[in-house]
Design a protein that fits this description.
The chain is mainly alpha-helical. About 80% of the residues lie in helices and about 0% in strands. The protein is built from 21 helices and no strands. The termini are far apart.
Length: about 425
């Protein structure tokens, strides 16, 4: 008990001093090594190395680099043109095309922010030009961007799989059903809200030209998801294939990216990785220490004695995750909470893969909730809009996403149908 109180006091002090997550995790690992490890801090280096020494971690920088390559090139624009050509005759067709473009681009980027910026930079001006309200346009782009972490491949899914030792391939496959559900619900809302907007006629020439110019871009999610679903690719192999394919298409086919420009793309990705991987190493070292001391087992035993209802547990966890999503970014929340919550969910009868999807869906909503709604913060800069306007724009989409979250919890087959099939 004294160790727990000391750890809690240290966390409170570091938060009071506004220290970053890296300092907080490293401080906790050092404190626990001193108290549990008889004062020997030399084990920390070994813990950091053992935690980060996993092949699957290679997939994270490759997916980030792949997203940067596609953002610099024209894959996003070509995919968007295909979606616009097919959805044009629908009421609110351009709004539907925005959601569908986010869904398709999410299937090759693995990142919410990359998806939002890649699609939003093209679609936001187009929506305003065609008479769509500023509020709806901002909400659709910010909410559509969140599909980047639920539709596979997904970097948060990889992190969850690493820290909870869950099959990343199963997580990827289980994300397809909820991803389709969210896409359909958001697209349906776009149709209803914009049902009085003018529609275009089918233009077979435009469709044919969009497909001809975008066939290489459109093939990418098919190759990736097909390889993952059939088991032909592991997560790391899928990342390598995605990066190689993006480079091949952008450099040699579309010729939108020069090889000499690739250095700058790698440099940007390295800066992002440089901030992520130390945190990941500390989180995994913390996870190893907790496992060695059987902390998750003790927490499970205590929870089972305190809460005897799986439903009550799930309600409490969802409230916690929604609150955490308002205050922490998704990667940090997964690294800190997943090692503790996943064993609890397993003890209450929830499959770890399903719980991973539920956790990511909760944190996905956090991208749209203040004060740390990353999509809102990035959109504020990218689209030069007040933060309050963005919050109001996101509210109806948050409600829709909450409905989808409840559906997945109530009917877990939505996530597990393809995994079990």
């Amino acid at each position: 008990m004294s160790i727990a109180l000391g750890a809690g006091a240290l966390v409170f002090l570091l938060l009071l001093l506004r220290q970053p997550l890296l300092v907080l995790l490293l401080g906790i690992v050092a404190y626990l090594r001193i108290t549990w490890g008889q004062g020997d801090l030399t084990y920390i280096i070994d813990d950091l190395w053992r935690g980060i020494d996993k092949e699957v971690i290679l997939s994270v920088p490759m997916f980030i680099l792949c997203g940067a390559v596609m953002t610099r090139g024209s894959i996003a624009e070509r995919l968007i043109r295909i979606m616009v050509a097919f959805s044009g005759p629908l009421p609110g067709g351009l709004a539907v095309a925005t959601i569908l473009s986010c869904a398709v681009f999410a299937a090759i980027s693995g990142s919410s922010i990359v998806t939002m910026l890649a699609v939003g930079s093209v679609m936001y001006p187009a929506l305003l030009k065609n008479g769509y309200s500023n509020t709806f346009s901002l909400g659709a782009i910010c909410a559509g961007g969140t599909l980047g972490i639920i539709i596979p491949p997904s970097i948060p899914m990889i992190l969850y799989g690493i820290v909870t030792e869950t099959s990343i391939t199963d997580l990827f496959i289980s994300g397809i059903g909820p991803g389709i559900l969210l896409t359909l619900v958001l697209s349906g809302y776009a149709l209803v809200v914009n049902r009085k907007m003018k529609t275009a006629k089918w233009d077979l020439r435009e469709i044919a030209d969009a497909l001809r110019r975008g066939i290489w871009a459109a093939a990418m999610p098919v190759i990736l998801l097909g390889g993952i679903y059939t088991g032909y690719f592991t997560a790391t192999e899928a990342a390598a294939v995605a990066l190689a394919y993006a480079l091949l298409v952008e450099v040699f086919i579309h010729r939108e990216l020069r090889l000499r420009d690739f250095y700058g793309v790698v440099l940007e990705t390295s800066k992002l990785g440089g901030s992520l991987f130390p945190v990941l190493a500390c989180a995994l070292a913390f996870n190893l220490l907790l496992t060695e001391e059987r902390v998750p087992n003790m927490l499970v035993a205590w929870m089972l004695e305190t809460i005897d209802s799986p439903i009550a547990f799930m309600v409490g966890v969802n409230v916690l995750l929604l609150a955490v999503g308002c205050l922490m970014d998704t990667s940090s929340a997964i690294l800190v909470l997943a090692p503790l919550l996943a064993p609890l969910a397993d003890a209450y009868g929830y499959d770890k893969t399903v719980f991973g999807i539920i956790m990511i869906l909760n944190l996905e909503i956090g991208y749209l909730t203040p004060p740390v709604g990353l999509n809102l913060i990035v959109a504020m800069t990218a689209f030069k809009q007040p933060f309050g306007t963005l919050v109001r724009a996101a509210l109806p989409f948050i409600g829709l996403m909450l409905v989808c979250l409840v559906l997945v919890i109530w009917q877990p087959w939505i996530a597990m149908y393809l995994v079990n099939g």
